[in-house]
Write a structure and sequence with these properties.
The structure is a homodimer.
Chain A (H helix, E strand, L loop, with lengths): L5 H12 L13 E7 L3 H12 L3 E7 L3 H9 L5 E3 L2 H5 L4 E4 L6 H8 L8 E4 L5 H7 L8 E3 L1 E3 L20 E4 L7 H13 L3 E4 L2 H27 L3 H9 L5 H7 L4 H10 L1 H23 L3 H20 L4
Parallel strand pairs in A: 1-2, 1-4, 2-3, 4-5, 5-6, 8-9
Antiparallel strand pairs in A: 7-8
Chain lengths: ~325, ~325
C-alpha cells in the first residue's frame, strides 16, 4: 500500500465531510485533545485518520528527536509538537502511546504528573501483558487505562510512511483490565471504529498467545531466513537477490520492518514466542525428516491442509 | 497479480502487433509447432504469452485428464489438445515439459518415440539436476535438451490461473549441459525473451543450491508455520484466521501453492534443501537463545542487517 496522493487524500476528506449525520466525522469530535506519544508508521497514520474523520479537535504530538518533530510539523500531522512530554499531554482527554513497547515504563513515568484527571491512556503496541505490568502501576488514580492493538501495519517506518487508510477493515483488539471504566473503553472503541476498524475485546494474556503465532513468529522466521541469506558467501548472495521473486522476496518485505519495535516485542512476549518457536521447530524437524527419507505422502498431506487456511483467510476478508 | 481483464489483454495484443520489426512478435514465429506437456499455471501462462507475442504458428497441449483438456480448449489456449502424448509431440520443433518434476521420467519415456529429429526438449521445472538425471538419458540422439526455469509464479494453480504477463521482467535460468547445440540454446533463450523475460545461464547444481535458499526454503518454512497454526486448538485457530493481517497471511499465500509440484521439488532437491534447513535451524536457535536471555542487541543487529537485503532487492527491481 502506498501513501495516497494529495488529490486522493483531499477527495477522501471531502467525502468524509459529505457523509450523512450517522457517519463518524460529522458528529461532534469524540475527543477534545488527543496526544500522540511517538509519530512513526502507526502514530502518523492515526494522526491522519483522526484528521480526516474529525475525531478530535486538537492533535498534539511528542517525538523523540527534533528531526521527527520537524517532519510531523511539515506533514501537517498536528497542532502542537515537541520533545518535552509535559506540555504535549497536559489537558489531553486521550493520550496514545505510539512508541516501541520497550520505552512504555519510561514514558508513563514522564507523563504521569501531567495527566488531566479523568484522562484516558491507551496504546497501539503489539504486546499487551506488558501494559498491565509496566504502565498501569505508574498512572495516577482517576486516569483510565485502555490498552489497544490495531492489527495493521506495513514494512515501512517513520512519520512519512503513515496513511489514513491503514486501519480500514482491520481489527483493533482492546484488552482493558476487568473493572475498567466502561465509558472510557467505549470511547477508545469509538476512536478505532472512527478509523474504520472493527473492535475485539480480549484478555491480554490470550492476546499475546494469539499474536505470537499470527505475527511474532512470522516476523521472527522472516528475519531468520533473510539473515541466513545475508550470511551466504558473496556471489551466492548476489544471486539470491537476483532470483528473489521465487518466494524469498515476500520474507524480505516482512524482515524490513522496524528493528527497535520488533526487538522490544520479542523481549516482552518472551514466554509465548519461545513456546511457538518450539512448536514450529518440532514441525520443521518432522518435515526435514520426511524430505530426508523421501516420504512424499507426508509432504503432500501437509501442503494440502495448509491450503484450507488460506481459503478461510480469504473468506474472512483479511487476505 | 490478477488475471488481466479482456480489454487489457486485447490492448496488449494490439500493442504487440504494432511493435517495430525488431520486437518479438512481428518477425517470423520462432517455432512452427510448440507442444506443451501440462497446462497448469506455468504451462497456460506460456501458451498465452506464445499466442500474444506470436512466438509459434501452432500450439499443442497434452493434459493428464479430460477435464483439463476441456479447460484448455475452452480457454482457447491451443490448436490441438489431448491426453495421449504421441500425437501432441509429433512434428513439434519444441516440446516443453510443464508437469510436476516428479513425472518427468515417465513423460520422457512416453514422448521419446514420437519426437521429431532435431526437436528441442525444454522444461519449466524448479529443480534442474534432475533433468540431467531423469530426462537426458531417455531422449533419442539428435534431440536437443535445454532445461529452463522461469523464476516466476503465483500461489494459484490450474489452466485458469495463468496470464501472459507472468514472465515479464522476471529471470529465466537455462542450464544446458556443456556441448549442447548452441542454436537450440539460443532458440529457447529467444522464446523466453519473447515472453519478456531476462536470460541467465547456470550450472544445474549451482541453480539447485541458489533456488534452495530463494525459493524452496521459503516455501518449506511457509508450509511449516501454517501447519503449526492448523494444529492449534479450534478456538485459537479461528483467531489466527481473524488476525492474520499481522504477518501470518503472507505465509498462507505462499503455503497455498500447488502441493504436488512442491512435494516433487523437495523430494528432488533433497541435498540442497536439507543443507539450507540446517543453516536456517542454527540461525533460528541463535535467535531463540537471544530472546530467552534477553539479548536485545543481538536481535537489533540482525533486524537491521536484514533491511539491507530488502533495499538490494528493490534496487534490482525484483520486489
Amino acid at each position: 500500500m502506498a501513501e495516497p496522493s494529495g488529490d486522493r487524500a483531499a477527495a477522501a476528506d471531502a467525502a468524509a465531510a459529505a457523509d450523512g449525520p450517522d457517519a463518524p466525522g460529522t458528529a461532534e469530535p469524540l475527543f477534545d485533545r488527543v496526544a500522540l506519544i511517538g509519530i512513526g508508521l502507526i502514530g502518523s497514520s492515526l494522526a491522519r485518520a483522526i484528521r480526516r474523520y474529525r475525531l478530535a479537535r486538537t492533535i498534539t504530538v511528542a517525538a523523540r528527536t527534533e528531526a521527527s518533530c520537524a517532519k510531523a510539523r511539515d506533514l501537517g500531522l498536528c497542532d502542537l509538537v515537541g520533545t518535552d512530554l509535559g506540555p504535549i499531554v497536559a489537558g489531553a482527554d486521550l493520550v496514545v502511546l505510539c512508541t516501541p513497547v520497550g520505552v512504555y515504563a519510561e514514558v508513563a513515568t514522564a507523563i504521569a504528573p501531567h495527566l488531566a484527571p479523568g484522562a484516558i491512556v491507551t496504546d497501539v503496541g503489539s504486546v499487551k501483558q506488558l501494559v498491565v505490568r509496566d504502565v498501569a502501576p505508574l498512572l495516577p488514580a482517576g486516569v483510565h487505562l485502555v490498552p489497544a492493538h490495531p492489527v495493521a501495519g506495513t514494512e515501512h517506518s517513520g512519520p512519512e510512511a503513515g496513511f489514513a487508510e491503514l486501519f480500514e477493515g482491520r481489527w483493533c483488539i482492546l484488552t482493558p483490565a476487568p473493572g475498567t471504566n466502561e465509558a472510557s473503553v467505549e470511547r477508545v472503541a469509538a476512536l478505532w471504529r472512527g478509523c474504520r476498524s472493527m473492535i475485539e475485546l480480549m484478555d491480554p494474556k490470550h492476546h499475546d498467545v494469539v499474536l505470537a503465532i499470527t505475527s511474532h513468529l512470522p516476523h521472527l522466521i522472516a528475519y531468520t531466513i533473510v539473515g541466513t541469506a545475508v550470511d551466504l558467501e558473496e556471489q551466492t548472495r548476489a544471486e539470491v537477490i537476483k532470483f528473489a521473486a521465487a518466494g524469498f522476496r515476500d520474507f524480505t518485505r516482512i524482515a524490513a520492518s522496524d528493528p527497535v519495535m520488533w526487538r522490544d516485542i520479542f523481549l516482552n512476549n518472551r514466554e509465548a514466542v519461545l513456546d511457538v518457536i518450539q512448536r514450529f521447530n518440532e514441525d520443521l524437524t518432522a518435515l526435514q525428516r520426511a524430505i530426508r527419507w523421501g516420504e512424499g505422502e507426508a509432504l503432500f498431506d501437509l501442503f494440502t491442509r495448509t491450503r484450507e487456511i488460506r481459503r478461510s483467510i480469504i473468506e474472512a476478508r483479511q487476505a
